[in-house]
Amino acid sequence: MSRQLREFIVDRTGGESGAGAGTSGSVGKLADALQPRFKLSAGRPAAVRHVWLDTFDWRLHRTGVTLEYSIRSGSYQLSLVTREGVRTAAVPRLTLPALAEQLPAGPVRDLLAPITGIRALLPVVSTVGTRRELRVLDQERKTIAYLTVDETTVPEMDATAPSPRLAIVAVRGYEAQADRIERLIAGLPGVAAANGSAFRAALAAAGLDAGSYTSQVGVQLVSSMAAGPALASVLLRLLDMAEANVDGVIRDVDTEFLHDLRVAVRRTRAALKLAGDALPGGLAARFAPEFRWLGQLTTPTRDLDVHLLGFDRAAADLVTAAAADLEPLHACLVRYRAAERRRLVRGLRSARFTCLTHDWRAALSEVRAAEGEATRRPPQAAHEAHKAHRAHTPQAAHMAHAAQVPIAELAAARTRRAYARLVRTGSAVTPASNEDQLHLVRKRGKELRYVLEFFATLHEPAVHQSAVSELKQLQDCLGDIQDGHVQREAIRALAERMMAENAVPAATLLAMGELAAQLDATANHARGDFARRFAQFTSPRNTRRIALLAEAAA
Amino acid sequence: MRVYATYNVKGGVGKTSAAVNLAYLASRDGRRTLLWDLDPQAAATYLFRVRPRVKGGGKALVRGTRPVDAAIKGTDFDNLDLLPADFTYRKLDLLLDAARRPTRQIARLLAPLAREYDAVFLDCPASMSLVSENVLHAADMLIVPLIPTTLCTRTLDQLTGFVGSLNGRQPAIVAFFSMVDRRKRLHRDILADLTRQRADVAGAAIPAMSLIEQMAVRRAPLPAYSPRSLATRCYQELWQEISAWPAKLAHG
Prior knowledge:
The structure holds two protein chains of two kinds. By secondary structure, chain A is an alpha+beta fold. Chain A has 18 helices and ten strands. In chain A, strands 1, 2, 3, 4, 5, 6, 7, 8, 9 and 10 form a ten-stranded antiparallel beta sheet that branches. Chain B has one domain: Rossmann fold. Chain B has an eight-stranded mixed beta sheet, sandwiched between helices. In chain B, strand 7, helix 8 (185-197) and strand 8 form a beta-alpha-beta unit. In chain B, helix 1 crosses helix 12 (230-243). The longest helix of chain B is centred in the first third of the chain and has 14 residues, at 15-28. Residues 247-252 of chain B have low confidence and may be disordered. Chains A and B meet through loops of A and strand 3 of B.
């Protein structure tokens, strides 16, 4: 069913061909161009709406795939364009956003699901207009290709209308004939091969950029930038990321919005803790408690999300109990999550949250603007300002110094410090250490990871990649230990809560016990792997990598 | 992927009409459908306006020098593809006989298509040959058109006996009455008796109508050019019965 797709842009005035107008005259011109080998059978123009879908983090775009949902004469169709061709599926009317698993079963869903994962499909851009479909027939009056002429506009304010597009879709097994049709049409005046897809044209018309959201920090730092403004740039990027996810959290589009919001908040808190002294005016001390509040606000819902996301797999892994025994637990988790989410949404709509983001942005923008001023100020004046700061108090002097040192110097110092702290904490772990000590190692690991991410653009990419990869393996191990422990305790707490509510049959309690035992086993297995992972991470080779990163930054 | 084969030792009983119309109805239900025209006469291929030619012929397919999916042609209908007939299929028995495991070649060739298609229809030539034996091994269900004559029970019994003697997996057999002329008392009686007596005979029957014969003139499946006709309704009933057949068997 895979079909090739060739597209042309048609001059809006129609040129001599008038191919884009979709009128009977232009159909005649197309038919003439295809004579004598092929004939055209023209359908009537129909109103059509195209909606392109992608996940919030552009997973389809990054995979080189586009997904189009078109609505025409009350029928709904999904078209998935991959490098191999086009796959279409007639679908019922979709309610968007939708997870891939909510789409009708079939090859389109099968291809989409591994790409989108747990992220929902959202409308990215849409066009409305008319489509005229023409069938190209051979001598036997067999359809060998379809021509579609789309004339659309983007229903956004100030959007420019994309040029009419003419597409050739080859019927399977008739690709050679479609090539010939393509050559004949390409020779028509006013017709030019399309530079990009209809999706790209619609994005351009709407003034949108594909792939504009990413959860990477990716702030381009220059070694000589003063640390304060440079850090403010990183923190502003994190604020953008946090704010970009708020709407998705409030609308409960998918669980990754909350995940990414939490990542942005955690990174912000880590930056304040590890390098907050580079910000002037006690900003770190002023805002740190507010971000702590925000982190805590999001935790209960995320914890329940984690339980629910892993629920089916955990239920399938039960040996003694039946998966169905866990249904009351699932119902409780869903109910608790709904309640926690209401609290979360209230928090995100509160004046406290609005003030936090507003004041934080204003303060950071001011710090970043100082970079421009500093570069304009004569060196002597900057030196005087530096001296004045130093004369104030020892702490103020330290902070003023940290704000004005080049970012590379600060990055090097904080990378070395974060690594040393991780090595020290990890080395203190013995077989007798409790979960709290391992949790502390995990926190130190995260701190190092964030430092590396903040200053990534100062690093040699290959060394950075290798160091992060080693760290990630250690973190995965620590994550398994910590998650197993936390979730086991959470199962215990849930069991007590459900018992107090009289909402738990005995079979469910037993199944929850088995679940807790499974989590324990996973944590113990990871625990057994810690020493090896830590030794690998602190190997001379990796220690050298961290040193190289610090040196490169400096 | 479910493989259906329209089969009868006799010719001119409505095998190709059934294969084309049932494949069309399956595709219209949203099933990704392939019709393989195994008959060198190429009637199904003609009905879909496709040139009856496979590059390299049956030899290339059986020997695997040309993959089956490269020979597939899209029809004018969504979800419905055709593997065309080729005149070399008249020697398909010889080609199959030269292969290793000669009775399992068609099943082998269909195996890679399982991800791509939900339903495959095999339109078989009228014969009892190595091709037929291959079809019996490849099919999940044999759809057997019967003209209501006094000998049709014997034909069906012979086929059932032969299928029962096969080693390994055996296809379900579903017969249906084709070219029924209700003006003839004999047709009416046989139809009534056999549909009552035999569990392997479908309740739906296809009438003898010139509208069905016009498929060769219109060169399209009947439901495509005459969607509301009595004949189309009969094929729809037959398809509903066939597509629900495994459940029916399971419930005894």
